[in-house]
Structures are given as structure tokens and as C-alpha cells.
Amino acid sequence: MNSTLNIPTDTLFIADNLALDFINTAYGVGGNQHDCFTDDNSVVEWLRLAGQLPREFQEVNQAPDGLLDLAREFRSGARVVIENAISGVIPDLAVVNRLLESGRPVREIEWNHKSGMFNIVKRLRYNDPSCLLEPVAESLASLLASDKFGFVRQCEGPDCILLFHDLTKSHRRRWCSMATCGNRMKVAAFRSRKKTE
Questions:
Q1: Count of domains forming the chain
Q2: pTM (2 d.p.)
């Protein structure tokens, strides 16, 4: 997703995949760690910026209690799942399956007075934080099951842990972002060449 809105500088949408962008909300190494999720409302704001906040929820105007804790727990588990899958280790998928199940919308049948017919409708459970994170779990499940999962990469920047889905034609993408890690690596390579001349 491209950043066309007024997105805070600490919010990254560079992975070409919703689940990977979600995992990338915690980044940095050593003492330079950063977490985009600071409270329940910051998770709601990230979902809004990612285009995943249901219209009906925007009217509720309050994050469900426990959203931050669930988001951090799921993000941590999702990173382990991705890292294991990249290394060829069969991951424990319980964290993904649990959220897919608990976040599922409720299906109900109702009478539609306007059409004079019964309709099956899906409704989110607004008091349950899982319902807001279910699209991220769905994205992760779809990515894992995709024949293009082999193009999930970690940035080659020496101090970068960001993940991305390489959807370029040549599948030769190396960095999370050319503007950050790619540029730093090219400058370092240039300086190294200059020293040897």
C-alpha cells in the first residue's frame, strides 16, 4: 500500500502485503527498537491507515479493550511463523488459526423490509479485539498458502529486520526500501570502492 495519506513517519507500508506490514510495526535492533503500537487506539489507527478498519467500526469511535495486547501477541507469533516458514521449518500455526476463528464475523439471517426478503448478513463483534485483527490473520494465512510465498524476504540491510514480499518482475528486490536501506548500502559500497582506489 502506498502512503498517500498523512501517515506518521514511524508507520511503514513497504512490504506489499498486509500481514508483513503488520509484522513490520515493530522494528529496529539493539537499543534502537521502535513499536508503532503504543495503545489500543494506535492499533486502530494503523488498521485505518492500512484500509482495514470496517466502516461500521469507525462509527463506534472506541478501540476494544485488549486490542494492544492481542496485536502485540499476534505480531510476535506471526513473525515466528514467517521466519520458520522461510527457513523451511513447519511453523506452529496455532496463533494464526486461533485469530482466524475468534475474529470471524457473526453470520445472521434477518428480514429486509425494503426488499421483502431474508438476507444473510455478517456482523463484526465490536467488543472483541479479534474481529479487527482477523483481516491480518487472513492475509497471513493466504500468504503462507500462496505459491508466491517463496518471494517473502528479509531486508539485506545489515541492521534491518523488516520483511517484504518481492513482487517485482525479476524477483531481485533486496531491500525493504530503496530510499533507506538500499541507499545506505549503495553509499557504503561506493565508499568502499573509493578507499581501494
A1: 1
A2: 0.81
